[in-house]
Amino acid sequence: MTNTTNDHAGHQTWGGRFSESPDARVAAFTESVSFDARLAAHDIRGSIAHARMLSNVGVLTDDEFTQIEAGLNAIGARIAAGDFSWDPALEDVHMNIEARLTDDIGALGKKLHTGRSRNDQIATDIRLWLRDAIDALITELERLRTALIGVAEREADTIMPGFTHMQVAQPVTFGHHMLAWEAMLARDTERLRDIRKRVNRLPLGAAALAGTTFPIDREMVADELGFDSVIDNSLDAVSDRDFAIEFVSAASLVMTHLSRHSEELILWMSPAFGFIDLPDRYCTGSSIMPQKKNPDVAELVRGKTARVNGHLVSLITLMKGQPLAYNRDNQEDKEPIFDVVDTVTNSVALYADMMPHVTVHADVCREAARQGFSTATDLADYLVRQGVAFRDAHEIVGKSVQHAIGAGCDLADLDLATLRGFSEAIGEDVYEVLTLEGSVAARNHIGGTAPAQVRAAAARARAALA
Ligand code: ARG
């Protein structure tokens, strides 16, 4: 027996060849409106551009376009006001909006879908949405970079130990350390700008997969929607999600940078280090240990990096087995993309808020640098300037450090006679290079840790942001 009345909501747009409604579990399994409703504003924008183009090429009349545009704008306003009820039986954001348009303006609403498919429609929606998300993320990244540059300027003279292998290596300035993080985020920004170019191409016009028989003007739609170009091949346009994978990969790198930064903030705030403090409002307490103040924001940023990396694996795995062209698998791209955007944008925004308020305990940082023989390389370089070969100088300084460890003091605490016992080349002026201030000031070239260079680098970083 054939059901010809077609009164099931789920049949409204594609039910013609079906004789029964989807099984309830199938309907729940296949619906996407519970998450893709988030694309509504972009979906409406795309539909208006499509309808305007259809009227321009004579597929719709001007009057039909005007009514469709007004109807879509009214629906957009209701969605924005939270005054729209989404129906899971209508599957997705596209059909919910189209069905409502037809309810509102009558049979004319059914003409909107002429010459397009949900396949090119969804690809267009995601690209429009992601383009905005990238712009918002770049804004937050620039805010965080500005914050880091501010801390760098404030702490340009603050001496701390620089580490390799987590062992005290050479003294650096706190400002220099901050600018290292800024440099990573500057590359992240650059990467996102580059990816945005490939996101910003129009799939609409590909229709289901092969293009359409209507005389469409894709360039016009691209122009109206602010796309840089149209995607040439219709099969490619509806099927590939490489632009999203690129974005999530860049987001994963942003999180990796923030996660490393977090790891340092967590260590530095531990009383065992005591280099920094964060305001109470960016920390939380323990329900059992009354004394605790935990850097939970930093720990969660480090933790949330895991889910972003997980989404990256989801998306590349989602693509790998798909033959051309569109497959429903692609519906699974939305939740990872949304969650990545939310996670990375929130993490960067929180860090942008928090970082200007980091308190640096300069005395503790300085003492940690002083205790670790961090100027040993400076002594070796000094000997080289006196004519000693570097490998011999390395050996001489090694012996001096061994002696200082035995004596329980630092290199700068050894008297001249003792030092000269290791090398006759050592003179009274050696103490200038053994000081922490002398050590950092001497690294006075582009990229070096000298306070003067930190100020110059901060100025360059500010100029790059302007
Ligand atoms: N919801 C789908 C997606 O997210 C778009 C609709 C395409 N569906 C279809 N049956 N062709 O990719």
Automatic annotation (TrEMBL):
GO terms for biological process: L-arginine biosynthetic process via ornithine. Keywords: Amino-acid biosynthesis, Arginine biosynthesis, Cytoplasm, Lyase. Its EC number is 4.3.2.1. One of its GO terms (molecular function) is argininosuccinate lyase activity. It is found in: Cytoplasm. Its main location: cytoplasm. One of its GO terms (cellular component) is cytosol. Residues 373-441 form the Argininosuccinate lyase C-terminal domain. Pathway: Amino-acid biosynthesis; L-arginine biosynthesis; L-arginine from L-ornithine and carbamoyl phosphate: step 3/3. InterPro entries: Arg_succ_lyase_C, Argininosuccinate_lyase, Fumarase/histidase_N, Fumarate_lyase_CS, Fumarate_lyase_fam, Fumarate_lyase_N, L-Aspartase-like. It is an enzyme of class 4 (lyase). Pfam families: ASL_C2 (PF14698), Lyase_1 (PF00206). Belongs to the lyase 1 family. Argininosuccinate lyase subfamily. In the N-terminal section; belongs to the lyase 1 family. Argininosuccinate lyase subfamily. This is Argininosuccinate lyase. It comes from Salinisphaera shabanensis E1L3A. The lineage of its organism: Bacteria, Pseudomonadati, Pseudomonadota, Gammaproteobacteria, Salinisphaerales.
